[in-house]
Structure formats: C-alpha cells, structure tokens
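Recall from the previous lesson that a structure prediction takes nothing but the amino acid sequence as input. Here we apply that procedure to Helix-turn-helix transcriptional regulator from Streptomyces mordarskii. The sequence below is the only information supplied.
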Amino acid sequence: MPVSPSSSAHAAREAVAGRLRDLRKEAGLTIVELARRCGWHYSKTSRIENALSGPTATDIRKWCAATHAKDQVQDLIAQSLNAESMYREWRHKVRSGLKHLQDGLVQFYRETEQFRIYSSTVVPGLLQTEGYAAAVLTIAARFHGLPTDDVAEAAHARMDRSRVIHEAGHRFAILLEESVLRYQIGDADVMAAQIGHLLAVGGLPAVSLGIIPMEAHERAQWPEETFHIYDDKLASVELVSASVSVTQPFEIALYSKTFDRLRGMAVYGAEARALILKAIEALH
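The prediction returns the following tokens.
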C-alpha cells in the first residue's frame, strides 16, 4: 500500500504500528530480540513499527506471542485489516471503466440526505457541466494511463448522477476556494459555461454555495485536500493515488469540524456571485 502523509489510511496503519511497538517495549525486548522470537529479520520489525509495511494476521499473532500479549491478538488483527481496507487504489476503482464508476454512486447519492462538500481543486462533480466533467475525466484518465474512449459516456453518467441535486429530500452545503474558479479545466468556453452554471445552481433552495475568497484575511483554516461528507456516515477524501473512505466516527467528526471552520470563512449570496462574475470576466 503506497504511503501518503495526508492519508487517513496511513494514520490508521501508524496506530497499529504504535500499539505493536508499545507491546515490544513493555516486554523489554529490543527490535533484534523481537525479530528472533518471531523468526524473521530485524528489518521487518523496523518496517512494521515505522508503518512502512502492514503486518499480516500471522505476523500479529507471532508478535503478541513473543510479547506475552495473546489477549490483544484479535483486536489488533481487526484494527490492522481496517487500516488496509481503507485504502483503495484508483486503478482498482476504475478498472471497469469510468462510466461504471459514475453509475456505481447513483444509489448511494439518492440515499444521502445531507451533503457537505469542500473543494480546493476543481468544481465538485454534483455542480459540473458535461463539458467540464469530460475535461476533468480526460485529465484523470491520461494521468493514470487509462483509456479515454468512455469519457463522453462517463461525463453523461455524471450528469445523470447530479440530478439528485434537484430531487426532494436532500440538502447541499458546498464550499469552494475562489482559486477553483480560476483553474482553467478545458478551454475558455467550457470554463465560462461551468462558472455560469454555478450561478444557477447556487440559487437552488436546497443548495448553500459558499466561496472562500483568496484574499480572506486571517484564515481560520488553511486550504485542505478536497473532501465530501455524506450525512455523518462517511467522509471521502481524494488523494493523488487513491480515494480514502473514512468511516471512523471520530475521524468524520474532525472533517465536520474542519468544514465548519471553512464555512465560517466563506461568503454567500451577492458576495459569492460577485466573485463568480469576476472569474467569468477574467476569462476574457
């Protein structure tokens, strides 16, 4: 599993590594002694304790036996498996095609009542025009060495998924860094249509659209990685190499706290529309 310092999956792996390291120290064993008891090279112990590689269930059983902590085996195995399963490689997600990836989210979106979305990079999928979506998906596919022959279908499927924003029973709180309005994805016509679409969507009754100005003074929170919170059940974080699904309540609470701080820095209504119109003028 590739390691990213901003990944919740890596943080989870570090927690397992910390518990195993504590068990070794409490047993009064050096790294070399622990390795000898477990029957492997001491470098493996070091890699596990530094969260560079995740332990298998067998590794954990041997570790706990060596440190006289067999009562912690099942708990540690469960924690380790959770850490590893949190991390899903992007290639694995899209191996069935970009359109399949979009279709797979439709039912989940319909079951979600409250969407909280923060983006510091691109316009979120729910607010994208078809042209902008196609440009985003093309860039992502090329970067990851994936075929682009189904980009048009995937973009259309994303539009079908986005219809949830017009359906009853859902609320949307969406925050964009002002810089998102300035990053040119696609040509000028694509950008003009996309930014203009934000004006229309921002006026929907179920949508609260906030823009965090680039010139915001004394920021209460620095720009973060793009994340989505679905009700209080899931936080999805987009990284370069993978998408991380956060399901631990205390971690979701941290993303909720971050969203609230960012929301306090945003402007809404006429002020937000002024920033959007300013971005449209900048295209010309």
